[in-house]
Structures are given as structure tokens and as C-alpha cells.
């Protein structure tokens, strides 16, 4: 847990840039991401070697622990322009079909509500650029998004 806290924060607020909030994230989603890092379906120079060293039982224990923690009090305010642009993108991309109302996610899809904007922007850019390959529907949705679209959606989701 101490290794995880060095990036993800001891209180659930990440202390490293572009690192996600994992406290309170859905158990199955966390477990799937750890497995994807280990199987190279998701690339990250920090997480891949950590996940490669974990057993299935260790992954399950970590996912169970972090999913049971409360989501930290984190929020960023989105501008009215970002909010309007994001609403349009969310309708077009049918975001609530997977991430549900309020973007709270479910066991297979992550909570995006009040996630860190820098992490969201990096993730959306990685999907758009084909770097992140573990969710082809997401890549298809954001493929045509501009940098301004990515920034707007990231700030909007962080402020929900």
C-alpha cells in the first residue's frame, strides 16, 4: 500500500501529475486495469512493472482495498464554455451509456465524476492517439476530438 500511496496519495489525492484517483473506484474496474497493465494491454512505464510483479491474489487484495476507500474530496470548476461543449460531446458519444448518469460508472466502467483533470486529459489523448488500447469503444468515440474537446471534457468531468 505504501508503494501505491507514493503516487496515488495516502489520503486518496494523487501526489504525482497525471496519476488517477483510485480511492473509491470500482473494484472490478481496478482489478481489470491491473491485469491490463500486466498483460501489456495498457501501457505505463511505472505501472507495468509493478503489475507484472503482482499475483492474481495480490491484485484482488489491492482492488478490494482501494475500492472500499472513500472517494476523496477533489473537484475543479469547469467554465460555462467547457460545460456546454462537454454536454454536446457527451450526448454525441453517448457517455452515459457506459459511465451512467452523473458519470459515476459501474463495475466495468470507471467513475469519471471528480477525477483529476490532468489524468482525464492524458487518458482521452491516449485513447485518441491509439496509445491506450484496452477500450476500443472509447478510442472510437474520441478519435475525432480536438485538443480543445479533450481539455473541455477533462475539466467538466473533474468538476462534476
Description:
With 160 residues, the protein is an all-alpha fold. The protein has 2 domains: 2-68, Orthogonal Bundle (Cytochrome Bc1 Complex, Chain D, domain 2), CATH 1.10.760.10; 80-159, Cytochrome c-like domain (Cytochrome Bc1 Complex, Chain D, domain 2, Orthogonal Bundle), CATH 1.10.760.10. Helix content is 55%, strand content 0%. The protein is built from 9 helices and no strands. It has helices at 2-8, 27-38, 47-52, 56-68, 80-93, 96-99, 117-128, 136-142, 147-159. The radius of gyration is 15 Å and the shape is globular.
The string of secondary-structure elements, in order, is: HHHHHHHHH
Q: What's the CATH C level of the largest domain? A: Mainly Alpha
Low-confidence stretches: none
Span between termini: 28 Å
Short description:
The chain is an all-alpha fold and 160 residues long.
Layout of SSEs?
Layout: H1 2-8, H2 27-38, H3 47-52, H4 56-68, H5 80-93, H6 96-99, H7 117-128, H8 136-142, H9 147-159
